[in-house]
Structure formats: C-alpha cells, structure tokens
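tool=predict chain=A
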Amino acid sequence: AAVPHPMIDLSPEKLADYNYLLGQFYIVDSNTEADAVQINAEDFLKQDLKITKETDTPQILIYHTHSQEAFADSVPGDVNTGIVGVGECLTKILTEQYGYRVLHNTGQYDVETRDNAYSRALPAVEQILAENPSIQVIIDLHRDEVAEETKLVTDIQGRPTARFMFFNGLSRTRKTGDIDYLANENQEANLAFSFQMQLKACLLYTSPS
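tool=predict ok
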C-alpha cells in the first residue's frame, strides 16, 4: 500500500536553518562533506534557472549512463521496459505537455560491465553538446537500487506515485576535502536547480504543516 506523503514546513525561517534543510531535503553520503555555505536555500532561490524555449533546437538532453537498469516487471533484453523506457516517457511529457525540445540519447554504455560506464558515456555526451549548443539541461536518468522489501511508492493526491531524487556530486570528501580532478564549474547552479525543482514539487505535492 502507498504511504501518505509527508508534511513539511516551507517557511523562509525554516529554509534558512541549515540543519532543517539538510534533514528535509538532503541525504548526504557518510564519506561526503557538505556545509552551510554550499547548501544555502536563500542563495539557491536567487538564481534564475528558467529554461529558454525560444529555440528550434534541443533545450534538454536525457541520457542513461546505466541503460541496463530495469524494474521487477521489465522484459529481459528489452531496454524500453527499463530505465530507457522511462526516459522515453519523460521525453514525451516534456515535449507534449510542456513544449520543450528534448533529445533522448539511448546509447548503451554498460552492456558488458557497469565499470567505467561514466567514462564511456562522457565522449558521447560531449559530442552531443558540441553538436547542440542550445542544450541547457542534461538529465542522466537512473533507476536506484534498493532492497527487495523496500517500497518507495507514495500517495500523491490519491494516486500511487513513485518517489524520485536528484543526485548532486559535491566533489568533496570528509577525509581529503575538495577533489581537484572532479572540479565542477556548474556545481552551484546544479545544486540550485535541483533544490528549486524539489521545492516546487513540495509546494505542489506535499501538505504544508
């Protein structure tokens, strides 16, 4: 059975509290370091991250580093019933309901092994961006792996709905600090973009406290 969606306080006072923000919006890996400078709701909300639609070329790229990720009812060997099919569905929604131009790359970078899939995907993504400089947002769409008994379906407005999360790489560990070879010039914008989307989802689909 679906579990009720949570109640959450979205007042400016609460969003200004780093510990509250961390507890309500984020799961930080035990090896990763985050701080109140990096995770700051006020700074995130100041950024204008609207996607420009005034182009006749793609604005959004969807791809899958792990194209072979599947679900309990996926058909073996048919990627369209796995995460690639979810990407196709998302492409259709963003295109038909919201009017964006979306490029869905169905390249497979993890067929023989998942090892180094990110390295194998990188040249393809770089080529797509070089050929389509109008792309403003890149979505690497995954299916997270959980224990078989874990159920992540929740109830949203009377409908059973799958939960999702935005994954942000912070390029920083507790032991070594910033990881130079993973420096990301878009990190702050990425964090702000995912926070704004999460906040919008909360405003639309959760009960205020």
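The mean pLDDT is 91. The first helix runs from residue 12 to 15.
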